[in-house]
Amino acid sequence: MNVRWALREIRAGAALQVCLALLVAILATTALAGPPLLDRWAGSALGQRVTRAQEDGPLLVHSTTASPPMQDAFFDDTGQGDDPMSAGVLADQLNRVSRAIRDKAPEPLRGRLRPGPVSIELPSAALPVPVGADSARASRLSLLYASDAPGAPSYTQGRPPGKAPALDPKEKLPVEIAVSEATGRALGLTVGTRTKLSDRGFDADVVVVGIFRSAEGRSPVSRRQPSLDGPLQEEIGGVTIQHATALLDPTGMEVLQRRNRIDFTVIWRIKVDLPERAAVDTVVHGGLPALRRAAGRYQQNAELGLCETVRSDPFCAMGQNLVTPLQTVNQLTPVFDRFATQQVQARSLSSFAIAGLLAVALGTVAVAARLAVRRRRTADLLQRARGATALDVTRARLLEMAPAVLVGAAAGYGITRLLLPGSAALPYGYALAVTALAWAAVPLLTWISVREQAPRRRRGRSDGAGLAQNRRLLAEAAVVLVAVASVAALRSRGAGESAGGVDPQLAAVPVLLGLVAVMVLARLYPLPLRSLAARARRSRGPVGFLALARTGRAAAGHGLALLVLILTLATAVFGGLVADTVSQGREQAAAWNAGGDAVVVDNTPPPAESPGTATVGVDTGDDPAARTLSRIKGVERVVSVRQATASLAGATDGRFRDPVDLVGVDSAALQRAAPGSAAARALRDAEIGGSAAGPLPVLASADVAKAYAGKTLALGELRGATVSVRIVGALPAAAGRDPALGPVRADAHAPLLLADVRSLGALQPTDITHRALLLYGHDLDAAALRAAAQRTVGPTAQVVLHADELNRLRKDGLLTSVLDAYAVCGALGILLALLAVILELLLTADERARTAAYLRMLGLGGRPVALLHFLELLPLAVAAAVGGTALGLLLPAALGPALNLGEFTGGPTAPVLHTDYGLTTLLTLGLGALVLAAVAIDAVRGRRRNLGSVLRLGETLA
């Protein structure tokens, strides 16, 4: 009988069945597709990051030094021994080792590695000074083998150096080299020129066989070795030295090494091939931890691969040279580690949005279930009167809801497969949980509605009401305690991640806080309504009084709709806050990383005696790098910034402690280039100029200034002369975060001493750990800047453009996935909230229709009745707008450390939370307008009802 009855009821409630199926489909799709879709977005972001990180060169660099054996066991004095390994085997050995160190990578990294460029460089040697040449100029030439050197099409004259018969080591003939056009013009080298290189025991006869076009820093090899495009100039003791690089073949490298018995360093650069599709598969299938472990173990494996490949007992040799253990520079592991840390934060924030959407959908299901139970209540009570138990009626409702739930779950699964084709692991547990809750809503409310009420009736109405009130208080207290405990635990531990990739505690916080907000509003907003109703009682018309009185009595009945509206608006407001904070944080981070419109940084200057580099000096009064960069098209101002790390001596005992960053900035130039600069303004107000006489006047960060204000202290851990500083005042917080200081400050939280750069004359160049030239202007030519920086500052120069840095931050796929999650969940939440309001109106439609009919029968017109309905639900819209907005604005304070947006933006400090008040106002007004529009449509529809359709003869209005 229950089955036949359930089928009949299904046909009667087809509209609610369709509504339930739609809601279950949304729930199942969100639970099934949400976490995997976040993984796909994260995987795409990982692929983009690896690709972007390799734009300036491979992330894995191996090097070894090859030396001739102490005993000439391999070759005789002619350079040609009895050993089968003779001249010409080096290139083959390089390729074999390159394959071996790639194949030694642990899985799954092994399949991701691709061959990169291999290079060998010999020390630079002096070129002979031509007869009659300027004695104030000298030239040095380095010899380089690079597997990615310019090919034959790049040669304008001659050919690339190769294994010609002239390279036979027995013949003592010159080694073939090739130079760029700029190098040939500067050094007077043409095809056929034969010259001799010499330097401290190194002698090499070379002949120029080819001239190639300069790449101007556009090719990888020229970016690594800028002196290959043209000579770099350096002034030492009034002599201008030109440092250039020429190309040669590995065979020529072998011949020179044998003749001069010198060491050379071999460098293998390994590329990581991780396209977006492969990165998505890695993240979706949980392969990122294994990839991180493999990257961490790779260095040891690669070292074993070197000796296993080139070993010639009893030596570890390459060709006929002993090699040192392989050294590896691994920049891949930091990329993976930073991404893994940020992914935890991204998943936490995204799960916050997904949990809010699921809560809104479940709340809408509860409103639909209330409507279904209300419409079936008469039939349910009739079944009870015919002898059916409450459990029988509940089972019938369970069967009645089954088709809608199954159809919705199947639709959700199908949509998930369309969105995520071929996804291996789906979170079926989450989907089953929310589907079961949706299925149980109607049966559970039905059981509550029809269960036996006799014991309560025997206790009396007052006793029953008191018991219900006590139960409600206990339930509300439990919800408040759980919410407070969850927030406290979340703030103490920060963001986390479960095995399924979702932080359940963080995901539950919005729902718990939404419940608390609903409970508070449900108890508070009837109070002003009663006061207004008392005033309306004394007014002439009955509409206001009736609307306010009915709203105050029905406040508790609108709790579910209020919860849905509050959660929807809170999630949307919080998403807008995240988006606005991230947007401003990216602006600050880009400005901090670039300093100005662009910056040229030399973070690792070589020693002063190292050839080939024109280091930026401390005194910028006659800085050749600044002069050269100022002539680049678009550059209007150049500002010099320097940084040294030292220890600050105590004022009483003189012991060195408290490491500080001593930063010097050209305050006058900075004031002209950036009039709003806080650092320049602070130096100007303190009257700190460029005098280098006596102790250096500095502004100190707040903690240092508080301890040593007005005192003169010595700086320790400097390699130059002893330097003293005089702390003339405290550095404003805004000046410590000035973007001009960003390129030279590795730690924005370290204690800071700020001085004028022209007063750092007492410091030696070796004391300066970071050098930067800030560039200001419009339409800066990035390629020209990089080429000029490499020629004047050195090969370690790094050029950062503000526009490029900002574009990189804006296109970060991981952060975009978080913002997309909030956008999608917010849009779906608004639609569900509108559906919940419509269902709430349908739930109370009969009661409102009877009230309207009764009032119309007493002579009230249609417009006042419509106004009555409008005013009746107006407080609900206002309460939802106020509660949702307040909850969305308070969520960041509740989350605390779990909301760390600085992981995405970078910059000196975590970005200050910014509320997008325009978006918040628009969302609040928009959601309120949707609610009131639904109410207005319902009121217009109610005006068309016939009195006889809602009232019966003899019926009284309660």
What is the structure about, briefly put?
The chain contains 30 helices and 24 strands.
- Structural classification: alpha+beta
Compute the gyration radius: what is it? Answer: 38 Å
Strand percent estimate: 15-25%
Query: Low-confidence parts, pLDDT < 50 over ≥5 residues?
Result: 71-86, 454-459, 605-621
Q: Total number of helical segments? A: 30
Q: What is the β-strand count? A: 24
The general outline is elongated
Main beta-sheet annotation:
11 strands, mixed
Report the mean per-residue pLDDT as an integer.
76
Kindly state the percentage of residues in helix. 40-55%
**Distance between the ends:** 36 Å
Describe the structure in your own words.
There is one protein chain. The chain is α+β, with helices and mostly antiparallel strands. It has 30 helices and 24 strands. Strands 1, 2, 3, 4, 9, 10, 11, 12, 13, 14 and 15 form an eleven-stranded mixed sheet that branches. α3 runs antiparallel to α8 (about 290-310). The model is unreliable at about 70-85, about 455-460 and about 605-620 (pLDDT under 50).
List the helices and strands and how they pair.
Elements: H1 2-12, H2 14-53, E1 60-67, H3 90-103, E2 113-114, E3 118-126, E4 137-146, E5 155-158, E6 175-180, H4 181-187, E7 194-199, E8 202-212, H5 220-224, E9 232-236, E10 239-247, H6 250-260, E11 264-272, H7 276-284, H8 288-310, E12 311-312, E13 315-318, E14 321-323, E15 327-330, H9 332-385, H10 390-419, H11 428-450, H12 454-459, H13 461-493, H14 504-524, H15 526-537, H16 543-553, H17 559-594, E16 598-602, H18 624-630, E17 635-649, E18 656-665, H19 667-673, H20 678-685, E19 696-700, H21 702-708, E20 712-716, E21 723-730, H22 733-736, E22 752-756, E23 770-777, H23 782-792, E24 798-801, H24 802-810, H25 813-843, H26 845-857, H27 862-895, H28 902-905, H29 917-943, H30 947-950
Parallel strand pairs: 4-10, 6-8, 18-22, 19-21
Antiparallel strand pairs: 1-11, 1-14, 1-15, 2-11, 3-4, 3-11, 5-8, 7-8, 9-10, 12-13, 13-14, 16-23, 16-24, 17-18, 17-20, 17-23, 19-22, 20-21
Helix pairs in contact: 1-10, 2-7, 2-9, 2-10, 2-11, 2-25, 3-8, 8-9, 9-11, 9-14, 9-17, 9-25, 10-11, 13-14, 14-17, 14-27, 15-16, 16-27, 17-24, 17-25, 17-27, 17-29, 18-23, 19-20, 25-29, 26-27, 27-29
